[in-house]
Amino acid sequence: MIDMHTHIFPRISREEAAALDPQAGPWLRIDEAGQGMIMRGEQAFRPVIPPLWDAAARLEDMDRQGVDMQVVCATPIMFGYALEAGRVMPWAERMNDLALDYCAAAPERLKALAQVPLQNTELACREASRAMAVGHVGVQIGNHVGDRDLDDAQLVEFLDHCGRNDIPVLVHPWDMMGGSQRMKKWMLPWLVAMPAETSLGILSLILSGAFERLPRSLKICFAHGGGAFAFTLGRVDNAWRHRDIIRQDCPNPPSSYTDRFYVDSAVFDEKALKLLVDVMGCERVMLGSDHPFPLGEQQIGGLVSKATFLDDAGRRRILAGNARHFFNLT
Ligand code: CO
After folding, report:
1. How far is the CA of 170 from the centre of ligand 1 (A)?
2. CA-based R_g, the chain, Å
3. Measured between alpha carbons, how far is 8 from 153 in angstroms, rounded to an integer?
4. What is the whole-number distance in angstroms between the Cα of residue 174 and the centre of ligand 1?
5. What is the pLDDT of residue 123?
6. Is the pTM of this model over 0.70?
7. What's the rounded mean pLDDT across residues 221-248?
8. DSSP letter string over 236-261?
9. d(CA 249, ligand 1 centre) in Å
10. For residue 58, which of 51, 68, 115, 198 is within the disulfide window of CB 3.0 to 4.6 Å?
11. In this structure, which residues have their CB less than 5 angstroms from ion ligand 1?
């Protein structure tokens, strides 16, 4: 099993975080009992468990669950997209080097995605290429930079760079819409806004016509099964057929672009997975768990392994084969 969507958060000190952002720089506090807390400045952000920063603890989890390989990437709070790019560039380099240090505990079983200062296309392209040269297998980006979605000319330029240089891209939802007032409780930003953010990222590329201009060599994957995309695709196609303003930049039906991107399998329900595989095809879905967070799949690969609608060949593709192709793993 290759699990292509998992997170790390390195042992970043308060001082290191302050160099990025004195008020809200993200760092890791570990208490005497070995429990972790991601901090933003002096504010507690989220309790976390050792596999997030300790590769040995992760490898124990992987052994227990029969996972052969995990692709690890930053926790999105580490992105720094709202800060000045010149300050974020050395931070991204440092985080990417720490990710490789983490993977050095078992280089055949742990692979890293890089983060980039996406607010500056030139720096983002440079760091993506540097990271690939030193051992990363791709990049992870957030689905937007402030008010700019993936159809933004600068972000399309970054994706074009990735497509032309064989740099696989994982798009992760983050900085969720509507989080300020109406979704204060019950982790609603994660339950309602996150699937909408991911769908917004996909539709930004489809409806803007960006997929018409981006090279077919671009390998891009959206987290959490593409969020709300699969379930709402019929609505989007219907809208495209009946409203010219939806067709104006997108020459083909939205559903015809599902061969241009991938999704992970983190949907937690067999009926949802079946819909996803029906919409995307089993060659476009990859095992992704969101390990080691509580909203991730606790028995990694359990949903795909037990899904009764999959045949053995399809199951193998989702559990490992598709990720092997996507990340050029041998
Ligand atoms: Co995630």
Report:
1. 10
2. 19
3. 30
4. 9
5. 98
6. yes
7. 97
8. HHHHHHH-HHHHTT--S-GGGGGGG-
9. 31
10. 51
11. 290
Query: What's the CA-to-centroid distance between 324 and ligand 1, angstroms?
Result: 19
pLDDT tens per residue, range 131-172 = 999 999 999 999 999 999 999 999 999 999 999 999 999 999
**Ligand 1 midpoint to CA 6 (Å):** 6
Burial (CB < 10 A; 0-12, 13-18, 19+), residue 153, is: exposed
Asked if the bond preceding 292 is cis, omega within 30° of 0, the reply is: yes
Q: What is the pLDDT of residues 281-306, one digit of tens each?
A: 999 999 999 999 999 999 999 999 99
DSSP 91-123: HHHHHHHHHHHHHTTSTTTEEEEE---TTSHHH
- Report pLDDT for 184: 87
- Compute the distance from residue 237 Cα to the ligand 1 centre, in Å: 28
User: In the structure encoding, which two tokens stand for residue 260, read together?
Assistant: 């241009």
Question: Rounded to the nearest whole angstrom, what is the distance from the C-alpha of residue 312 to the centroid of ligand 1?
Answer: 27
Residue 310 CA, ligand 1 centroid: distance in Å: 25
d(C-alpha 254, C-alpha 279), whole Å? 12
| CA pair distance 265, 302, nearest whole angstrom | 11
- d(CA 265, ligand 1 centre) in Å: 12
For residue 283, the 8-state DSSP code is G
Residue located via tokens 């800060």? 83
Task: Spell out a b/e string for 203-224, using b for 16 or more CB atoms within 10 Å of the CB, else e.
Answer: bbbbbbbbbeebeeebbbbbbb
| Ligand 1 centroid, distance to 194 Cα (angstroms) | 10
Alpha carbon of 139 to ligand 1 centroid (Å): 13
pLDDT exceeds 80 at position 23: yes
User: How many whole angstroms from 227 Cα to the centroid of ligand 1?
Assistant: 12
Q: What is the token pair recorded at 191?
A: 């339950």
